[in-house]
Amino acid sequence: MLQIDDVTVRYGDNAAVDHVSLDLAPGQVLAVLGPSGCGKSTLLRAIAGLEPITSGSISWDGADLSGVATHRRGFALMFQDGQLFAHLTVARNVAYALRLRRTPSARVAERVRELLDLVGLAGYDDRLPGTLSGGERQRVALARALAVEPRLILLDEPLSALDASLRERLAGELREILHAAGTTALLVTHDHEEAFALADGLAVMRAGRVVQQGAIDEVWREPVDEDTALFLGYARVLRDEAARRVLDAAALPPAHAVALRRSALVVDDAGPLRAVVESARVTPDVVRLVVGVEGVGTVDAVAPLGARVALGDEVSLRVDVTRLAVPPITAAP
Amino acid sequence: MTTVVGRGGRAAPVAGPQVKRILALLLLAAGPVLVLGVLFVLPVSGMLAEGFVVDGRFSPGAVLDVLARPRVRRVAWFTVWTSGVATLLAVALGLPAAYALHRLALPGRSAVRAALLVPFVLPTVVVGVAFRQLLGEGGPLGVLRLDGTPVAIVCGLVFFNVAVVVRTVGVAWESLDPRPGQAAAALGATPWQVLRTVTLPALRPAIVGAASIVFLFCATAFGIVLTLGGVRYATVETEIYLLTTTVFDLQAAAALSVLQIVVVVALLALAARLRATPDPTTQRAVSPVRAVRRSDAPVVVATLLVLAAMALPILTLVLGSLSVGDGWGLDNYRALTTAGDDQALLVPVTTALVTSLRTAVDATWMALLVGVSVSLIVTRRSHSVAERRVRSTLDGFFMLPLGVSAVTLGFGFLITLDQPPLDLRDSPLLVPMAQALVALPLVVRTLAPMLGGIDDRQRQAAASLGASPWRTLLTVDLPVVWKPLLAAGGFAFAASLGEFGATSFLARDTDPTLPVVIFRLIGHPGEMNYGMALAASVVLALATAVVVLAVERLRVPGVGAF
């Protein structure tokens, strides 16, 4: 297993990675989620051995990796844009690591066929990377990374270079492929959708530090602070009196703050909160509202499709407790 | 004047907007084409006609006979093998230096990179003198007895061209995306395997491009071969010179010129194919240099050896110019105000220096004027296949002077521009014009990649915000191009300061340039004349070095890269 112990990477005075510790169990897929510039890519490169670490240690199964060159670590790195070798065909790209190890050519051919099957690109052997679409390139890059059964695969925003529909499809495929291959993987991304689609563990990183880590649903349900909540897709964080009112309406104990999803408040004639509709927008699933709630302020709410809600209407709201989170720490505003 | 092209197409009615664009393009190109036609095609074809037309009749048979002569075959073979060997050596020596100077955080590397640009523009005659001083009897390497041998010629050619390889490959290497190499390393490739399977394939266009240009420079080298090889070892270029000036066998000279032009055009076409065209939509990224590790030792040592070998001839030259009798002194430099022993010269060397500087100024503005319009023409985005073809043909056409023998050009000037309406023989602009032509490809190669690197959408954005074509040029093109423009000017200036091939034909005896004077001085017996030649060489080298180092301070990427 991979152990990252108190690792710091400095550029001059600036710590890109600041005392980070992470553990990754065999077969686990861990996502490191954070905004751009939070140091997550630097961490990934440090694990790959492409970035020297200032202090701390990175080890695999107890063996320290400092001084072990990238090519001896046995970690495959998959770049954001695939980084296929443009002068080699798809088959040659996938076979690259096998050829380096002087694998017999019959075995190479067999393995390449297997992998291209796995990523759904059978028959693409002789194509050049330049002729492939973005999604196909990413899948070839994945097949190439998996070719020598790396003990760990490092993924740098593997889906973010793709367009939305392709991203969704490939995310599902990628997850299946990783699980089928039983590979341990570490993925960095700024997109929580991507993290949820692929990973089972989540570490949230901000300004070089890991602020929260755990099972993905755990982190999702209980974001450690307001910023994390907002980054995980919660729409608004209410404080003090506003928070108290909402929690009261949900029959929950009072707290300093509460983070709400956009669907945390639902139009319901029996609901305890009174509100005035400030805007209404129909989406395929629900009607999304922005409402002014007395004593709370402006918040998001939803109404079932077909509900007749118009601007200026007075509505009643109930609180969906599965759609809110109470961050234990309240960050300074 | 440039956006005429861009506008013509869109504003035109549906019927033949492409034809209109091409017509506009041709109209725009008319100026430079005319200049090159009169000052390049006419002289060169005049020179060729001397050979092909006998007694008013076209008889190519005689030319073919010339090519079968044993001496001509020997000369051609000598040219090919010396150039080939010199090219291989220059590439072999240049690659480690390119890596060390462009990818490693070596102390003083920018100074060294700047210094490496100097040999490339150093006047050929100066280098010839320096090598003779180094290898000749009594020189530091005199014991090797290499003076006057083909080895000396190859060494001289390598000296000039290592810098071209370092520049061209180094620039490509530093803008190489490091991530494919890292991806390979993550897949288990050792550093050596990364180099072999990822880096070298990515650099191949730059390496082959540099090699073909270097071969071209070697095969058409003149001053260096003439000073080091004399009559005994002639290349095609010096043979053309001997045949026209000494033997007056114009037919043979023309035959050799044809041979040379054919080979050069083929090589230029090859180089153009291999030259990677910058993708205007991607910014040129320079990857950061890496700290030196112990494993870099072989590369660093190889680079230091190459640098030492490059410095040696120059150092010998400087020391030689300062040695007087048994001691040291500035006597050789003081003698530069005289015309030499035995009246070797008609004017003092200092006068020649002034002539050189004045000529170079004229040549520079001419080269810039033509070079800027050529660059603008060849880099605009084409809207149709036909248009692209026209542009690339023009591009190739304007590169021709790079490889056509300066000697052919010079002699062609003499025999074609001597009667009205084009009687330029007594014009003070004759020499600058020839030198401007020689410098033109350098100017275009410096400017064109910069202009080509501008994303055309920038201009479109400016235009959509209401900028006139002229205004667009000012806001988009000029900020990118002014530094390269200065650099190209400096380059052209340095190149024409040292130009010898064409100038040796065209400069009048009463108005010689410095390289011509140096060549004359080493041809005249007398210790003082030789000392003066050394001193004059140092002065000339210094002048070009100052200009080139100033150019390097502008930090234009890709200057001196092909």
Automatic annotation (TrEMBL), chain A:
Is Membrane found in the keyword set? Answer: yes
Pfam families from the xrefs? ABC_tran (PF00005)
- MF terms in GO: ATP binding
User: Which terms are listed as keywords in the entry?
Assistant: ATP-binding, Cell membrane, Ion transport, Iron, Iron transport, Membrane, Nucleotide-binding, Transport
According to the entry, every stretch annotated as the ABC transporter domain falls at 2-232
InterPro entries annotated for this entry? AAA+_ATPase, ABC_SmlMolc_Importer, ABC_transporter-like_ATP-bd, ABC_transporter-like_CS, ABC_transpr_FbpC, P-loop_NTPase
User: Can you say what this protein is called?
Assistant: ABC transporter ATP-binding protein
What organism is the protein native to?
A: Nocardioides pinisoli
Q: Which classification does the entry list for the species?
A: Bacteria, Bacillati, Actinomycetota, Actinomycetes, Propionibacteriales
Automatic annotation (TrEMBL), chain B:
Query: Which PROSITE patterns does its entry note?
Result: ABC_TM1
Q: Which UniProt keywords apply?
A: Cell inner membrane, Cell membrane, Membrane, Transmembrane, Transmembrane helix, Transport
Q: Which Pfam families match?
A: BPD_transp_1
Q: Cross-referenced InterPro entries, in alphabetical order?
A: MetI-like, MetI-like_sf
How this chain sits in the membrane, per its record, is: Multi-pass membrane protein
- Name the predominant localization: membrane
The subcellular location is: Cell inner membrane; Cell membrane
The record's listing under Gene3D superfamilies reads:
MetI-like
Q: Where are the transmembrane segments?
A: 22-42, 75-99, 111-131, 151-173, 206-231, 251-276, 297-322, 363-382, 394-417, 429-448, 530-551
Q: Where is the ABC transmembrane type-1 domain?
A: 76-269, 353-551
Question: Which PANTHER family does the UniProt record give?
Answer: INNER MEMBRANE ABC TRANSPORTER PERMEASE PROTEIN YDCV (PTHR43357)
Entry similarity comment:
Belongs to the binding-protein-dependent transport system permease family.
Q: What is this protein called?
A: Iron ABC transporter permease
